[in-house]
From TrEMBL:
Alphabetized Gene3D superfamilies for the sequence: Aldolase class I
GO biological process: carbohydrate metabolic process
UniProt-listed Enzyme Commission number(s): 2.2.1.2
Signal peptide: none
Keyword Lipid metabolism: no
UniProt protein name: Transaldolase
Top-level division of the source organism's lineage: Bacteria
Organism: Paludisphaera borealis
Keyword annotations from UniProtKB, A to Z: Schiff base, Transferase
InterPro entries in the cross-refs: Aldolase_TIM, TAL/FSA
Pfam family, one: TAL_FSA
GO molecular function, one term: transaldolase activity
Length: 358
């Protein structure tokens, strides 16, 4: 009997885990999950459990400050997850089996309060932020075969993409909400890729956040009709998916350049847990929180291809008429950057506390 997640994969897509918790990675691998993503929230939660205390003590003995300790700890966790999926990466010759490593979200913090070594925080201009993304991306990808570097679709992040791609870094463009961001990211990575000696290992993915869009419209576009409200995230992500399919169709690349359908956990209790998972079945990558994958697997449902199934024309027309994508992007980017910066600061606070207690 085909299990739900197996049916998702059989429909033509990949399923990843939005966690690098070793227990969740082990459980999800049994279900057929072939990759994972990480972020500061996930890392902070794992450090809080005490599982990394021995690593922390080693870093403290080496004289690392809290900032460097945080990133070395993240590297340990991501590397462990990479090892779990390395066989997939090898079997697919680099087309799957990745684990994403998020670069420093404090680079975009509008009110920085910490920096490396406890020095007064730097207020970086846009060019300095871009150079930091390039330097950090090269550092944390070097020698790590099945690691993707997550770079946000901010102005400074987008400006770093061409150089990262040219340097051979495999990139996951995160915090992408709109077609404008996607096109800017895609074009920058393609420019960089064409500066390489070979395109054989070029792989890029674009994480399109879904449920947060519906949270936004529920609050900021309350006059959407019932058939349209709660469907904007799906409509937007499917539109970007189609754009991506069309752009890469004639490039003749050996590896797929894919959309990652992210933020797929439902936010409303009345929505079925598989609402977004079901909508994108059939192509590219879904990265789901552990609870979402568990509920999908327990559902007993079969998920046929649906990613190219459009919304009704009248619903699509209403969404286009009523949703201001410029405003949506501005609001969700500000919220998204804060949601990653706050946990990174919390991680630094946690490490400082564990240092005092060690």
């Amino acid at each position: 009997m085909t299990m739900p997640i197996q049916s998702l994969i059989a429909s033509g897509g990949k399923v990843w885990l939005d966690s690098i918790d070793p227990d969740e990675v082990a459980r999800n691998r049994v279900w057929g999950i072939t990759g994972a993503t990480s972020n500061p929230i996930i890392v902070t939660d794992l450090v809080e459990t005490g599982r990394l205390d021995k690593d922390l003590e080693r870093f403290f003995r080496e004289g690392l400050d809290d900032y460097e300790t945080a990133w070395r700890t993240t590297d340990v966790l991501v590397s462990q997850a990479q090892e779990a999926f390395l066989h997939v990466w090898e079997a697919t010759r680099g087309d799957d089996g990745y684990v994403s490593f998020e670069l420093d979200p404090l680079l975009e913090d509008s009110e920085p309060r910490v920096s490396a070594g406890g020095r007064p925080p730097d207020r970086l201009d846009a060019e300095q932020r871009t150079q930091h993304y390039i330097d950090l991306g090269k550092r944390w990808s070097e020698g790590r075969r099945n690691r993707m570097i997550k770079v946000p679709a901010t102005p400074s992040g987008l400006a770093a993409l061409e150089e990262l791609a040219a340097a051979g870094v495999t990139v996951n463009v995160t915090l992408t909400f709109t077609p404008r961001q996607y096109v800017a990211a895609r074009d920058a990575l393609w420019r960089g890729a064409r500066r390489r000696r070979s395109l054989d290992a070029f792989k890029s993915v674009y994480s399109i956040f879904v449920s947060r869009v519906d949270v936004y419209t529920d609050k900021h576009v309350p006059d959407l009709s019932p058939p349209a409200q709660g469907q904007v995230g799906i409509a937007n992500a499917k539109r970007i998916w189609r754009m991506n399919q069309e752009f890469w169709a004639d490039k003749g690349l050996p590896l797929k350049q894919e959309i990652v359908f992210a933020s797929t956990g439902v936010k409303k209790p009345d929505d079925p847990p598989w609402k977004y998972v079901e909508a994108f079945a059939g192509s590219d990558i879904e990265t789901n929180p552990p609870a979402t994958n568990a509920k999908v697997q327990a559902s007993g449902r079969t998920f046929p291809r649906a990613v190219d199934r459009p919304l009704p024309d009248d619903v699509s027309a209403e969404i286009d008429a009523k949703v201001d994508m410029v405003r949506l992007e501005a609001v969700l980017m500000a919220e998204g950057l804060k949601k990653f910066a706050d946990p990174q600061e919390a991680l630094l606070d946690l490490i400082a506390r564990k240092r005092r207690e060690s």
